[in-house]
Amino acid sequence: MKMEDMPLSGPDNTKLEALVHDIYSELVEDACLGLCFEVHRAVKQGYFFLDETDQESMKEFEIVDQPGVDIFGQVYNQWKNKECECPNCKRLIAASRFAPHLEKCLGMGRNSSRIANRRLASNNNMSKSESDQEDNDDLNDNDWSYGAEKKARKRKSDKNQNSPRRSKSIKHKNGELGSSVSSEPYKYNYNTGISYETLGPDEVRSLLTTYFLFLQQCGVISEHTKKMCTRSQRCPQHTDEQRRAVRVFLLGPSAPSLPDADTVVESDSFDIPDGQTLMSRLQWEDSPDISPADSASSKASTNHSDSRRPKKKKRPSLGLNSGGGGSLTGGGGSSSSSSQSNISLSTKKKRPKLSAPSISSIYDDLN
Amino acid sequence: MSPAGCSHVNGYKVDNWKQNLRVIYQCFVWSGTAETRRRKAKSCICHMCGAHLNRLHSCLYCVFFGCFTKKHIHEHAKNKRHNLAIDLLYGGIYCFVCQDYIYDKDMEQIAKEEQRKAWKLQGISFCFLSENLMLSKWGEKYTTWEPTKRELELLRHNPKRRKITTNCTIGLRGLINLGNTCFMNCIVQALTHTPLLRDFFLSDRHKCEMQSNSCLVCEMSQLFQEFYSGHRSPHIPFRLLHLVWTHARHLAGYEQQDAHEFLIAALDVLHRHCKGDTINDNGKKANNPNHCNCIIDQIFTGGLQSDVTCQVCHGVSTTIDPFWDISLDLPGSSTPFWPLSPGGDGSTVNGESHLSGSTTLTDCLRRFTRPEHLGSSAKIKCGGCHSYQESTKQLTMKKLPIVACFHLKRFEHSAKLRRKITTYVSFPLELDMTPFMASSKESRMNGQYQQTVDVLNNDNKYSLFAVVNHQGTLESGHYTSFIRQHKDQWFKCDDAIITKASIKDVLDSEGYLLFYHKQFLEYE
């Protein structure tokens, strides 16, 4: 019937009801028609059958709600043997140990550079005994943070290695957005004091070579402190004469001459004077020019704690510039560890800048 | 010609047929404006019987309306040999020769365009529950997926099909703990069950611009594929861990970490890697960091308004900061937690289970948005008075994100003590954020804590979909999460073990990170 025929404001309730009913049924019909069109189209276009599923498949994926099993109907704790491939070193690692492995693999952990150095040292000396010591490092490690070496040892060895909790302070103020970086300084601070009582003559030789050649430090032994100067070779306090003298003194007549900034000399043929006296000399003065360490650890300059170097260490990193642990091996380095050193080097690019530009150029050469 | 079309339309497709068809759609099928609606109502009646119901059709060749049920249009078709008619309700084209509705690709294209135009004119805002979001929100034309011929063939050959029903495990998967990575697993579970994010990734919206393999967004996309693959064994997120550590150095390291920190870092990296997907109105890539339009910003970024009111001249200076989460102080912390206001019954607004004396989320929010008197030691330079004056500061929500994450500050690191605050905070399933909006601020300042709830205003209604809990102490503990799937089913995710949970379990849990999703979404 036509809409215009119906008196809209009729007081008669039945008419109103009839009207309401009409509108309602029209709406329902329209909705049904819409559905019909959808189905019709699906059939006509040929994809109507897609809605069907088979009972079997659906049964497979039903949620299970019983005690002792998860929603897939599996018993708990059967996933102990999962393995995955490390994206870095491509080895197969047990899944539950992946995080600690990755930390060391990427050189991000507190001990990673030390482990890397150790591994390189052991590779260099053709002894494999070190490479399996990875997991024991935690036990023997000394905390990197400066000023805490004495306590660090005791503290570390007591704690459970698997769940130390760093104090991450929650610093998000209301409204703060985005990367709120923990204000904790990087955990891998450098230690700047080294003692070498336990080194053999070979190590000393290589060490000194590195020191003089790669790091290109002044090295002149100060009269007052009896320690070697850590400034660059252009250090104003000492003359070239003094520098040459020290080199000869420590390494013999065939000691490397003061090189130019970029040459790297093979270091195989030095004589070493008496080891012990040498040891006592091998103490580095802290110099603000060179130490890349953070401000947090610049306090005690020559704090060489005896507990620092456990006996296993054959080639300690020269703390001040230990960025490229692998660079110590220089020409004789084994290639297998070079990838490791590259990794540790690249991860350390974010370190506080090395102040002596010549040094970084050496690393570039090595890389 | 599509397979569902017919050859008879070819007679129609001559001269200016497209324009004619458009006119028909605009005027008589999809009414954009009130005016066209009126015109349609007045003119669309059957030319033979005058009725406006009965499935009115319009002839495509001439101006003739006729009802379908009474066969008036059929008569016209026979008499005039006009073989095509259009249904005025849904725009379907009927061919009298085939005696069926036909679906011609070109004509359908025109129909869709006109329909969209009409919707725009009407200003229809589409309100959808978060489960059924239409993809047009992402700036691309919405089309339902229709299989091509080849796809149909393949599908016919493979009849085993899975459909996600309410009782289906697809979409749920355990995550192996890689060594103290429970915090990461919980956040991953929460993100994979964020409906908008799920829709975005499952519809393959990410176009990667990074050269190397280290795009975190791609890895997220892969993660969704894993979750919806139907595999039952837990997934090993080792690649994700590797990528996060590479891109967020401060998180790297095998030790227990904070889930909230991880969330912020993850969102940040995702945001940075989303560059390829930001598209502004012109279709060009907009890379303005302040006005990024990537999926992360669209979903998670809200605006926090901070008003500083000078006590002397009452001038207000306002700043708006973006945020991804709201960190709330708890009672029991050493920061002063103001007692409930005189209008303490405000919590009933949200229907929380209000055990007498326990703090509710609303209380915490109220505290968060209260005006705070900055002491005399923190005088602000007032622009009005041109001098340093005491002031009050108040935070309110300027713009609410689609997904609001509340972080209850349970880990206290003050000068003297470091501890975990285990006070129970009850949180509701449904949350109305209206009282905390900047627009409601004025009435709050006047002391009216009781807000009349506008039932019709759906803008600020949120519903809970994920809860991350922490058990243990500050030094060591374990994270688990509850996530919601299929409207009202909750599941507990404890690393590799997923079990069904009741709503009561969820609401009774301690709560550390609470994820709320807007209930009604609108097109912009």
Automatic annotation (TrEMBL), chain B:
Query: Which compartments is it annotated to reside in?
Result: Nucleus
Entry annotated with the keyword Transcription regulation: yes
The record's PROSITE patterns line, in alphabetical order, gives: USP_1, USP_2, USP_3, ZF_UBP
Instruction: Could you list this entry's UniProt keywords, alphabetically sorted.
Output: Hydrolase, Metal-binding, Nucleus, Protease, Thiol protease, Transcription, Transcription regulation, Ubl conjugation pathway, Zinc, Zinc-finger
Q: Which family does it belong to?
A: Belongs to the peptidase C19 family. UBP8 subfamily.
- Superkingdom of source: Eukaryota
GO molecular function annotation: cysteine-type deubiquitinase activity; zinc ion binding
* Chief place of localization: nucleus
A GO BP annotation: proteolysis
Q: What is this protein called?
A: Ubiquitin carboxyl-terminal hydrolase
EC number(s) on file: 3.4.19.12
Record domain UBP-type: where? 4-121
The UniProt catalytic activity note for this protein reads:
Thiol-dependent hydrolysis of ester, thioester, amide, peptide and isopeptide bonds formed by the C-terminal Gly of ubiquitin (a 76-residue protein attached to proteins as an intracellular targeting signal)
Q: Which gene encodes it?
A: LOC127357156
- One GO CC term on file: nucleus
All copies of domain USP, residue ranges: 173-519
